[in-house]
Amino acid sequence: MSRPPILNPLAVPATSVDTHLPPIAPAHLTPAALRSRFASPPVWQPELAGDGGLFAGHAPAAAAVLLPLVIHEDGLRLLLTRRTEHLRNHGGQISLPGGRVEAQDASPEATALRETEEEIGLARSFIEILGRLPVYTTVTAFQVTPVVALVNPGFELTLDEGEVAEAFEVPLQFLMTPAHHHHHLFEYAGGQRQFLSMPWRNTDQGEPAQDYFIWGATAAMLRNFYRFLGA
Q: I need a labelling partner for 52 at 20 to 30 A (CA). Which of 111, 135, 145, 194 fits?
């Protein structure tokens, strides 16, 4: 292994917070506005193309994830998952539903829909695909295509308990506000790694509030989504 994994990201101090950057206006975070943006996308470049460097011994593999934006009367919310602790890769981390491309998948959209249905039981009949974001390469050599979609209300979830410990929703406005984007620097013998986090406290369930540490590739792809919407 050319560099160590970050086993406890919560222990890595934040070096800065992007309070100087403007949030995406609420008017640009509606279903109609997102449909329009993907129908006529701007000229833009993603801020983060990958984790920067790869773990040794990992062959590149194609993957896709879904950014499921659930439609609510008070605004869109992103549906995220918390992976089970025992998983070999990214156990306990906050993730977007998705996974490795399989031979039967005709497209990244097909992969994202299949994996989402397998992981959390979200039926594709509730999902409206909007478009893709640029491929993001993880430290474990997955070349991930993020697929953005709207999710109509009325669905029921059935979690794959072997992979998913929890599914929850975060207001999209929170995630598209850079004042909630934290930069971290992880130092080790021989180098440094940087990563982004978007810590969120869910107070909707009452006390005690539940804390979620959204970081790594998930946070990076959401940052690219912010750049796409703000271009």
A: 111
Asked if residue 2 belongs to a domain, the reply is no
Say if residues 156 and 121 touch (Cβ distance below 8 Å). Answer: yes
Give backbone dihedrals phi and psi of 150, rounded to 5 degrees, phi first.
-90, 145
Give yes or no for a contact between 46 and 133, defined as CB atoms under 8 angstroms apart.
yes
Provide φ and ψ at 137, rounded to 5°.
-100, 120
Residue 1 maps to a domain: no
Q: Enter the tokens of residue 36.
A: 């329009």
pLDDT tens digits for range 142-177: 899 999 999 999 999 999 999 999 999 999 999 999
- Terminal-to-terminal C-alpha distance of the chain: 37
Phi, then psi, of 26 in degrees rounded to 5 = -55, -35
2-28 confidence digits (pLDDT tens): 566 777 888 899 999 999 999 999 999
For residue 156, what are the contacts with CB-CB under 8 A and spacing of at least 6?
Answer: 121
On whether residue 88 sits in a domain, the answer given is yes
Place of tokens 């000229």: 43
Residue 62 belongs to domain spanning: 9-230
Q: Can you give the pLDDT at residue 194?
A: 87
Number of domains in the chain: 1
What DSSP letter does each residue of 119-155 carry, written as one string? HH---GGGEEEEEE---EE-TT-EEEEEEEEEE-S--
What is the amino acid identity at position 203? Answer: T
pTM confidence score: 0.93
On whether residue 23 sits in a domain, the answer given is yes
On the question of pLDDT at 193 being above 90, the answer is no
